[in-house]
Amino acid sequence: MPILPRLKNTYRSLFRKSELESDLDEELRSYIELLAEQKVREGYSHDEAMRLARRDFGKFDRVKENVRELRMGAAIETFFQDVRYACRGIRKNAGFAATAIFILAIGIGASTALFTTIHSVLLRSIPYDSPESLVVGRKTIRGVQSGPISRVNYLDYREMNRTFDQLAAIAWGTMEVTMTGASRPDLLQATGVTWNLFEALGVEPVVGRSFGLDDELSGDGSAVVIDYGVWQNRFGGDPNVVGRTIHLDGSPYVVIGVMPLGFRFLFDVDVWILIDDNNPIDNRRDAHSLLMVGRMNDGAAIEQATADLGTIAVGLAEAYPEANANKSVVLTDLHHYLVRGVSLNLRLLMATTVLVLLIACANVAGLLLARGERRMAEMAMRGALGASRLRMVRQLLTESIVLTSIAGLLGIAVAWALQAGLLRLLPMAGLGFERPVVNGAALSYAILASALCGVIVGVVPALRSSALNPARQLGSARINSQSVRSRRLQSSYVMLQVAISIALLVGSTMLIRSLARLTSVDLGFTAPGLLSGEINVQPDKYPTAAERALFFSSLLDEVEAVPGVTSAALTSKMPLRALGSDWPTWPAEQPQPANQDAFMPMARWVSAGYFETMGMSLLNGRDIQLSDDPSSAPVIVLSESAARGVFGDAEPIGREIRVAFGPIQDPIQVIGVVADARINGLRRTPDAAMYMSASQFGANRMWLAVRTAGDPDRLGAPIAELVERKDADVVFSQPMSMATVVDSWQSGFRVVVTALTLFSAVALVLTARAGRWLGRDWCWGLSLSTQ
Amino acid sequence: MSDGQSSLVRGTLDMLILKTLSLQPMHGLGISNRIEQMTDGVFKVKPGSLFPALKRMEQEGWIDGEWRESENRRKAKYYDLTPAGRRRLGEETQNWGQAVLAITKVLETG
Predict the structure, then answer these.
(1) Nearest Cβ partner of A386 from B61, B70, B72?
(2) HEC string of A483-538?
């Protein structure tokens, strides 16, 4: 029987069972009718003949049942036979099987590990009630997304919108507050939230209550909700914590509730402070510091909500053109917002692993094809002995599926190992997702992947190996042309692998180059040998700026006396550790530009000697000095690009500028220019910045920068002790070497690069290995063809 | 052929059907009539054995079924040998011959 109709037959038996059944019915009926006809010819009446025929036939259903059982039994029997045969083949060819299994196990393992991570980050929903109706809102200027929303505008959006059940807001970041009143002072991470944030998220405190609208209306600005961990560690899990008064930065607050264990939203926060009129984030319509978080009405789509808020924005822009011109709101699905940082990396990695899996498949398919060449004689023999082509294809497919199943099991082990090592390094801690573990979904993925691989890997070689017409094949010369075609197929497999491997290599080389760029990036300051940490004094203990300035300057003297310290200085925001704070700045002789047109460099307060301690080079003019105190005229040092931004190419030294937002409304004299530094991150251009004299402001919270002779990490403890001796209510918090800080900025990217490089290496090794195997088998093919 | 005998002659039934079909294509009833006739009524192949055997052999690719009109204008499914079936018949005949020879030898010994 020619191949095609037979394949059609089998196709029918596989997929069109019912048609097969009715065909059998018809056949059996025709049998009875023919039998009856025979009886008629023997002399029976028509009715009698029918009756006899039915009797002789026996029970109709019984016959059908027999056929059905046979079919089923045959299928199962064939399957086990195939599996047995496959196992025998694998044992006989242990070297080949080990290679194939190794290759596939790595491919399946790597992609399973990645799948697990992606599943837990990108696919699984976030842990809040009906997360699909949660959105975040950010400001746009002329349609371009540009960060936080002002509190005053937020209140209008909340009042006027018609598409939200709850429109809440959270501060655009956290702040560190010192909690006193307990046994010892403690630094806590705090953020401000509107009363309805927890309600919008659908999360209730486990102890006490959540904020209510009444809390906001009463406006005494003193309600806080605390984190479960803080409740356990700082209050010993005391159930009477509700109603207790705590002091944050010297001001009294009342604890009204404790959030459930594991609750976290955007930031790791110890205490949530209610934003109300008395505890405002800011009170100006053009001061932006809130992220809106909204739960849309049932059935409202994000487009409707966007349109709704957009209409309000148009009204606000007309009513307050100075603050709100061109401003509107963009809404983003909360889940997308949360994963925005890692999703690209993960997708890149996933694409890579899929490619690695493909390489592994192409690899093993090539191996099977090469082996198929050797087995042509065997197949031809089996064909001659009456095995149908379908039977042979099925058997070869079973073999490859058995291979890939074993590889899949091993791959799960590989996934475990990879997961434990590599993927834990992904910058996921900040996302509020569970750590990925190899779970049921991952296992199903692995099993599915291995089955799929089995088919991909097996189908072409199986079709090729069994494509012989045994009658003409045995002892004929056609084997030669067959091998040529097979070899062509093999070459295309190898070519495919090489192509994918090269693509991967090029990709990872490019990434490695940008990692190298990132590592060798000019920070604008010298990170090695630099220690940094934050110091926070109680405003109620040092009420005046002069007192605070005095505390800090005497602290600097004492720190510089610590053995191993070369120099010490202060800044209001440590580069790469405390971000933001850009203030509109313009030449003093000009009128203030509109905020959205203003040039806004980063504003920093620094002590004398800051640039030297940081290792930043002064390009022009002079440094901030001890003499730049409150009694003298205000001075400012601009960074190179800040000077260019304000004055263009004109000489800046000696000119005067004005700065909005800051405490100094008078013109400030420019006394020097320093090099630009990376303040807000490594992967962006150096930030324009301006540095004012800390003692002319007298902040209560400063970062300490310490230049050390030896290992900076060793000095963390002695300096912390010194600070505590000086004032028991002050803490030297988060001491960390700047080298470590820079490293952590690179780590997320480095993990991606490492993984990609690793996978490309695996791909390359696999390709090389396949080449060797193919080479060997080609020789085999040649020797076979000459026989 | 009664069911009790089937274990003894399962292979034999295949062989008989193949042999029958080697002469000409036939439908199910034709096959069972022909076998009964050829064996002088010793083997009566009932539908309960015949159809499973036919379906199995069809799956193995030894025979191939096709709907045609019978001699008196009725539709019936006719089976024909495939090349594989023809080879199979040759093998079975050979095996059978050897087996019969061997068994006969044993029985005649002593």
Answers:
(1) B61
(2) HHHHHHHHHHHHHHHHHHHHHHHHHHHHHHHHHHHHHCCCCCCCCCCEEEEEEECC
Name the residue facing A386 among B28, B58, B88 (closest C-beta): B88
Residues of chain B in contact with residue A38, where contact means CB-CB under 8 angstroms, are 29, 33
Distance (Å, rounded) from C-alpha A763 to C-alpha A392? Answer: 31
Q: How far apart are CA A43 and CA A198, in angstroms?
A: 94
Residues in A touching B48 (Cβ below 8 Å)? 58, 62-63, 66
The C-alpha of A374 sits at a distance from chain B's nearest C-alpha, in angstroms, of: 24
Give A22: exposed, middle or buried? Use CB within 10 Å, 0-12, 13-18, 19+: exposed
Question: What is the spatial distance between Cα B32 and Cα B6, in angstroms, rounded to a whole number?
Answer: 15
The 10s digit of each residue's pLDDT in A42-93 is 888 888 888 888 888 888 888 888 887 777 777 777 778 778 887 887 787 7
Q: What angle do CA A73, A75, A77 make, to 5 degrees?
A: 65
CA atoms in the 13 A half-sphere facing the CB of A69: 9
Q: Any residues with CB less than 8 A from the CB of A292 and at least 6 apart, and which?
A: A136, A137, A138, A149, A154, A157, A167, A168, A169, A329
Residue of A nearest to B27 (CA): A31
- Best A11, A22, A30, A79 member to test B by mutation, with max B CBs in 10 Å, is A30
Task: Tell me how far apart the alpha carbons of residues A7 and A390 are, in angstroms, rounded to a whole number.
Answer: 7
Give the gap in angstroms from C-alpha A332 to the nearest C-alpha of chain B.
59
CB contact under 8 A, A31 and B88: no
Whole-model pTM: value is: 0.52
Q: C-alpha A571: how far from its chain's center?
A: 33
Interface test with A, best of B59, B64, B72 (most A CBs within 10 A): B59
**pLDDT tens digits, B62-86:** 898 888 887 777 788 999 999 988 9
Report, as an integer, the average pLDDT of A547-559: 91
Q: Which amino acid is at B82?
A: T
Residue A528 has pLDDT above 80, yes or no: yes
Chain B residue nearest residue A74, CA to CA: B56
Lowest mean pLDDT among A10-24, A328-342, A354-368, A719-733: A10-24
End-to-end CA distance of chain A: 29
Question: Beta A271-274 vs A186-193: how paired, if at all?
Answer: parallel
Query: CA A443 to CA A114: how far, in whole Å?
Result: 12
Residue with tokens 């997320």: A748
**In the Cβ-directed half-sphere of A685, how many Cα atoms lie within 13 Å?**
6
Residue-wise pLDDT tens digits, A162-211? 999 999 999 887 777 778 765 566 778 889 999 999 999 888 899 999 99
DSSP secondary structure, A97-128, as one string: HHHHHHHHHHHHHHHHHHHHHHIIIIISPPSS
What contacts A509, CB < 8 A, 6 or more positions away?
Answer: none
Contacts of B70 in chain A (CB under 8 A): 34
Reported as a single tens digit per residue, the pLDDT across A85-133 is 878 877 877 777 887 788 788 778 877 877 777 776 665 556 677 888 8
Which one of A8, A31, A33, A392 would you mutate to disrupt binding with B, by most B Cβ within 10 Å of its Cβ? A31
Predicted pLDDT at A774: 54
Where residue B1 falls among pLDDT bands split at 50, 70, 90? very low
Whether residues B29 and A28 touch (CB distance < 8 A) is answered with no
Max mean pLDDT range (A351-365, B22-36, B38-52)? B22-36
Query: Residue A712 carries which DSSP code?
Result: G
Chain segment A401-450, per-residue pLDDT in tens: 888 888 888 888 888 777 766 555 554 444 444 455 667 777 787 788 88
